[in-house]
Amino acid sequence: MDKKTGHIYFPGLNGLRFFAALSVIITHVELLKSQTGVKSLWKNPEISGKHQGWIEPLVFYLGGLGVYFFFVLSGFLITYLLMSEKHRTGTVAVGKFYIRRILRIWPLYYLVILLGFFVFPHIHVLEIPWLDKHFDENFFPALVLCLLMLPNLALSIYPAVPHVGQVWSIGVEEQFYLLWPLIVRFSNRLLRTIIILFSAIIAFKMIVLYLSFARPSIPGIQAVKAFVAMSKIECMAIGGMGAYVLFFNYERFIRTCFHPITQLIAYVSLPLLIYFTPAVLQDGIHLVYSFAFIVIIMNVAANSASILKLENPVFNFLGNISYGLYMYHMVIIVLVIRLTGMCIEQKNSLAANVSYYVLSVLLTILISWLSFRYFESAFNRKRKKFSIIDSEPTPQKEE
Fold it and tell me: 2 by DSSP, 3-state: which?
């Protein structure tokens, strides 16, 4: 941050955004293949149970890791921006913050929701039989919850709405945005507040998890468990801790975080945790991932000696459209699988599977760029009117 101008720009984070979105796409290609009758490229049909092919755990968990990363990154960036605003002006303009978030998130969110509920169900090539059979019976309550920005609650009660199931994480983000500026504005000891909130969330989740196993007959307990499990505010809190340490330049912690061995541990721990974490620990492993992610984020963003360097025009472009990549990819994957299956006779062949991945990624990038340039950018320009801290995602001007 330049404390004279108030400008904030962290190099390399757009590249991380893109890879997080790409990881979600990879997992959902395999998920949607199985839901549209195409065999997985990564599973050995002769082996049943948990270990179905050596690479399956990596493919399966990549999507979750991508979402966890987005949560940690949101916590880091939002906390840093809000602290910068408070440092510069003495307070946080909560109303302006809400307007900025609304202009960035809501237009594309509601476009995808309306398409998912009212347009995609009438396009035959986009059918997903397993999900479609539940769509009509849960249509109205699921729609109301999504319109109220509670898609994570909808998903905890009902099966996913075809092509828009990914929006559950947007609900979590919005609930975080509702809470966090108030915490930063009114807390005089922010780090302590974040740690207390983090501890309270973990304790509450442990109670809910215990009740779901010990008292499964409690009405609605499984839905509560699902909702609480999806609400990863603790991941955002970890991002907030990293932002606090970096903003106030806690040298001892920063020096440890920036050490090459710490960086190496953060990167190596991700595949090791995927393959070797016992099933009994899966409910809490996202916390370990989140601490690894904040180490990676802080190094890429602020360490000139970072192992990973992602600052370049290509990644800046892809990172800028990452919201669209996340929001559009589900319907595009289904479309690609259906159309590729019509063009390639052996739809389970290696050539077909490569086509599913390559075409899904390329077409999602194209649609996301068109959306960013001709739809989202209009709202982004309006968002600047409510900005107090200059936080352009890239040094380049938006078109």
Answer: strand
Could you give the dihedral angle defined by the CA atoms of residues 380, 383, 389 and 393, in that order, rounded to the nearest 10 degrees?
Answer: -10
Give the other-Cβ count within 10 Å of 287's Cβ: 16
3-state secondary structure of 45: coil
What average pLDDT does the structure give for the chain?
90
140-144: long-range pairs with CB below 8 Å, 24+: 143/113, 143/117
Residue for token digits 């890791």?
A: 65
Q: How far apart are CA 322 and CA 355, in angstroms?
A: 21
Dihedral sign, CA of 100, 101, 102, 105? positive
pLDDT score recorded for residue 131: 78
Structure tokens at 255: 């020096």
Q: How far apart are CA 144 and CA 248, in angstroms?
A: 43
Render 311-343 in DSSP notation, one character per residue. -SHHHHHHHHTHHHHHHHHHHHHHHHHHHHHHH
| pLDDT tier, 264 (very low <50, low <70, confident <90, very high otherwise) | very high
Tens-digit pLDDT profile for residues 44-74: 544 444 444 445 678 888 999 999 999 999 9
Cα–Cα nearest to 366, from 397, 336, 398: 336
pLDDT (tens digit, 9 = 90+) per residue, 149-165? 999 999 999 999 999 99
Cα distances (Å, whole numbers) of residue 258 to 77, 237, 252, 337: 18, 20, 10, 43
Cα separation values, 8 from 5, 78, 83, 242, 388, Å: 9, 12, 12, 16, 11
Cβ 30 vs Cβ 59: under 8 Å: yes
From residue 135, give the alpha-carbon distance in Å to each of 165, 196, 327, 334, 392. Answer: 12, 40, 19, 17, 40
Each residue of 161-183: b (16+ CB within 10 Å) or e? bbbbbbbbbbbbbbbbbeebbeb
Tokens found for residue 250 = 């806690």
Q: Rounded to whole angstroms, how far apart are CA atoms 330 and 103?
A: 23
Q: How far is CA 56 from CA 31, 40, 130, 344, in A?
A: 11, 9, 22, 24
Q: pLDDT (tens digit, 9 = 90+) per residue, 100-124?
A: 999 999 999 999 999 999 999 999 9
**pLDDT for 29-40, tens place per residue?**
988 988 888 877
